[in-house]
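Hi support team,

I submitted a single chain yesterday and got back a structure, but I'm not sure I'm reading the token output correctly. Could someone confirm the output below corresponds to the sequence I sent? I've pasted both exactly as they appear in my results page.

Thanks,
R.
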Amino acid sequence: MADEDNKAESTEESSGEEKKGGGLKMMIIVAVIMILEGAGVFFLVNTMSGPKAADASQMEQLEGTGEDAPIEIPLIEDRFQNMSTGHVWEWRVQIVLRARQKNQTHIETIKERDTALLTEGIALIFRRAQDRHLREPGLETITRQLTTYINEVFGMDADGMPRVDRVIIPECKGFRSDT
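Hi R., thanks for writing in. Yes, this is the structure output for that exact sequence:
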């Protein structure tokens, strides 16, 4: 009987040791799997990362050089009225033209010669504009109308392209002036 008791105690001790060892093995396996998973995610994120950085030389090719280099020409900085809401609103506006350098002299000449014509045309666009067009976050409608008008005034260059590439409105702030 004593042998049987000793055998029972020894089997209980060995099974307890096996359980402890088995738990440790399971923790090691889970830790290894988590490390491999982390490495896999890191590798995947690095290979699918965003766009590569552009070199300055690539940007120069996009912008153009020499006569095709873009320049900004201030056109007008003035205040225009709008009464489309039934109230008098005064809009402080600044307009800049972006054009190629080869068109600068022609644009400057027309700008100096037809200052009143340009101011009147722009004022009419602002007077006729609906309030929602003047409050658009990107001023898309007003910019489109101004671009059409500016292209009519300045015309096309020898290449058949508009002399003005883009109309930029860096400032367009409205104030109610009838209060």
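A quick pointer for reading it: The chain has six helices and three strands. Let us know if anything else looks off.

Best,
Support desk
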